[in-house]
Records
---
Amino acid sequence: MTTLFSYCIPHDNGAAPNPFWGVCTLVICKPRIRREAEVGEWIVGTGSADSPIGDIRGKVVYAMRVTDKMPMRRYDAYVREHLPNKIPSWHSRDPRLTAGDSIYDFAYDPPNVRKSVHCQCDRDRDLRGQYALLSEHFYYFGDQPRQLPNHLQGLIKSGQGRRSRANDVYIEPFLARLDSLGLEPNRLFGKPRGNLFRKWAHDVEFRSKCGSSRTVRASESCRRAGRKSAGG
């Protein structure tokens, strides 16, 4: 039976998921989902009930059907050849490049952490996921999230973690709901946003300087640890 995974997105920063360049990918964060989800299964990200962004609470930020799953090492090689824009370019003026999710450079052992929305502090959690999930059948709503009707509100995971088998009763009605919207898949119906995004005057509205307030704190912690190590 197809599994529908659901979880809450407290901050939608364009990196997890990364909906750009025609393929929606989940490569960092959510290690259990990345290990467990298989090709053909669905992943749904909703606004958290306690999200600081009030108008995404209880709404769908994105939905993707997994169409490929590969070890993170192979994903790194794959994007080099097929999706180079998924490799983060931290100083780019294009936020889609800043938010690249191919963060780990497996040309090194252990893999280097490319300058990106994550740092060394995130390594263990990210690599624990082992796999990259790719989708060529997705709906990304971002800052234009879609309301879940009352009979589907049970999909929403309260707090951290994910729902999977508990969602079995919602699979058919959720997919029917998606189909009823009459939307073309593999399109962005909104843009990523987060409390640290800022506006640009060009086609892409937001630039991510960091993934979230948690990422900022982690990055500062990494820098402090590095300074302490260098001094000792």
---
Amino acid sequence: MHLPSVVLRKLNFQYGSDLIFEDFDWEVKPEETWSVIGPSGCGKSTLLYLLAGLRLPSAGELLVSGTPVPRPRASTGLILQNHGLLPWATVWENAALGVRMGHFYAHKRPGTDGTRPYPPQLPFSVVEEWLERLGIAYLRDRYPGQISGGQQQRVAIARTLALQPDLLLMDEPFSALDATTREGLQELVVELQSELGVTTIVVTHNIEEASFLGRKILVLDAPPNQVTSVVENRGAGTPDYRSSAQFLHTTQTLRERLRDAARAAEA
């Protein structure tokens, strides 16, 4: 699999008259794992939706593998906070949704720009493999309302990874879960990222989560974001990292950056 880079050059984006990003530059190299953190309303989720092709820049460039993203890419996986499961569908049906769409659109032609926004045509066995891999195969005939929040998020992860994405975007994926379940899924994401090598970007409002998941951390300020502020965090995801001095240092650094951003917003 050719893993993508992400490049933002002089990117502008605004909602109405509210400018969220102004001449904003950022680069993500293939296989990197990033966390994105910042105060409420700073544009964290907006940035992810831009990367997913669900929003378009007002000006500037946004390139994935050197190509603009005028619409969602078939190879981009997006996992949301609310899981996005269909309540009337079983665990297996939810996990297989993207694969079923790939079969439905199998004979669709590429767009005029040569890209194919539709999911790939894959065998349904990949769904079985991911349900097994994530330890939820025994839940295949249950409905979302019959399983826990952590199990629902595993279904969402299975649905996404079954499509073999090269870019994985996660928008506060564990914020609604209890601490123990959240940490378990964080460790699962680190394990999967190491196994698959997929380029990964996780948006979160949780300082500890950002520090554990991101080997690089993008810190956003109150809008408009003009300066790229990055915290290097090379030990992220390693065994016992949460109890290390480096983890403590990273979380303290993030707290100070966010405190400064809040003061600047109030000034």
---
Amino acid sequence: MAPESNQIAVGLPHVGVEELSKKWGWFLALGILLIIGGTIALGSAFLMTVFSMTFLGWLMICGGVLQTIHAFRCKEWGGFFIDLLAGLLYVVVGFLIIANPAATAVTLTMLIAMFLMFSGIFRIVLALAVRYHNWGWMLLHGVVNLVLGIFIWNRLPEAGLWMIGLFIGIDMIFNGWSLVMLSMVAKNLPEGTAEKESSA
């Protein structure tokens, strides 16, 4: 057995090593499916963006309906009107999102761009002001955030139609690769790793 597998195994006894070793194939299959799904999402970023916004709208409607029902079932308590108004607001906003998911995506993309720019400036200023051990990495992180935020902002509103779908696709691909790598480690774990670690 390769020494790297033994070193990795030492750090895994608390996460169900035996179960992971037995079912590594499931992790591999899920990882491959996520990579395929993420690749499809990258190829149809606009459709993924619209789908995610529509899904968000329906979630808000369901949450609003449930909160409205809860308000009427518990109408004797002092927060009845707050519950009712919050539930109705969720429903209204959910319908607005479903009615125009593209506009919602553009608005959300604008907020993401602003967040990236402000967080980038904050990290740059903090890194240059404090200069602790890894200030160079924080400076790089801040510069990347700032550049990415400006890049997205300069491409609004078009960026709003594909950016969220693009981010979802990238996240699915990275998640899939992490599961594939985990399955490869689990496949090569020596038998009885959990028992050896617990008895050590």
---
Amino acid sequence: MREMWNKKTEEIKGANIKKYVRKFYKEVKETSKEYQQQNIIYKDDKGKILTEAEDILLRWQQYFQCLLENELQAQEKNENENIEELEGIDKPTYEDMTEIISKMKNGKTPGIHNITVELIKNGGTEILQKIFALLLQIWDQERMPEEWEIGITCPIFKKGDRRECSNY
């Protein structure tokens, strides 16, 4: 993004230096339409205004920690209720896995690994066999890979006050 703005600025400077007045004003007008200054102001949990980048990052960290703690508590409750139900489940089969993969929706954003659903679906039998081997390993060890616990979180504004983390 920064490169695009630098390139645009150089074009405007060049038009000004070469005395291309019409082009200069046209570029400035287009650029000013595209640019929207973003206020980087948020509120802490008590409503105090935060303007320093470090304070804002700390606020987002606290907000997400609170969300995750609530989610983990609910998840633990569900896991405790479902443990008995899981005892009688058979080991997954290759056919089960391929059926589930075929039902997955295309166009979803990949995680930190950058592997898309389309790649898995169209990667052929070798990829499916490797995924199945990994699935069986996870089943036998009853443990997910640590890398799968890493996620990318992008807050998306819903509605209300943009300075409130809870509105994202």
